[in-house]
Design brief:
The protein is mainly β. Helices cover 13% and strands 42% of the residues. It has one domain (27-160): Jelly Rolls. Strands 1, 3, 4, 6, 9 and 11 form a six-stranded antiparallel beta sheet that branches. Strands 2-5-10-7-8 form a five-stranded antiparallel beta sheet, with no helix packed on it. The chain is globular, with a radius of gyration of 19 Å. It starts with a helix and ends in a 15-residue tail after the last strand.
């Protein structure tokens, strides 16, 4: 009986150590939305604004127009990942109203766009995502932010390999 108990404890401890090791290896990639090289209207870079506390120098905005330009325009951001793998995608956003509370993003031109948001947090910066999984290559990758709805601001993008990790507050850029 004691040997069986010890074996059970060993399995639990080993499992816990494996879980902790996986979290310790969580690879994090964070970059500013306003670092986009190509920005197509109606999207625009806003540098310096009273909408603090955004990170960096500003953010990308899709101005509110009752969604008349929904689906038009994009912003392309190049970023580096230290290791290839499957990452969870997050975005730090500010919604103007309930008719503009989501964004679409595509990473490396793979598959369909990932829609982030559709939550009810308005008039404040907050993180959305956590369900969108994307494959990154080691080295250079490309994220395309698309106009899914208007009345949206995007501050940062964050990707990590630990699917249970949730970013909070402003994250330091890794780029």
């Amino acid at each position: 009986m004691n040997k069986m108990m010890l074996a059970a404890v060993a399995v639990v401890v080993a499992g816990g150590a494996t879980g902790e090791a996986a979290r310790a290896e969580n690879i994090k990639v964070c970059f500013e939305a306003e670092s986009a090289g190509a920005v197509q209207t109606p999207l625009r870079k806003v540098l310096g604004s009273s909408l603090k506390p955004y990170s960096g120098k500003g953010f990308i905005e899709i101005p509110w127009d009752q969604n008349k330009t929904k689906g038009i325009g994009s912003a392309t951001i190049r970023f580096k990942a230290p290791k290839a793998g499957v990452y969870t995608l997050w975005a730090r956003v500010y919604w103007a109203n309930g008719c503009g509370n989501s964004i679409a993003a595509n990473v490396n031109g793979a598959g369909s766009d990932k829609v982030l948001g559709e939550d009810g947090n308005y008039d404040k910066w907050h993180w959305v995502g956590g369900r969108a999984k994307v494959s990154l290559k080691k080295g250079l990758n490309v994220l395309v932010l698309k106009n899914h709805e208007t009345g949206v601001r995007v501050d940062e993008f964050f990707l990590c390999t630990d699917a249970e990790y949730t970013p909070v507050n402003v994250r330091p850029s890794t780029q």
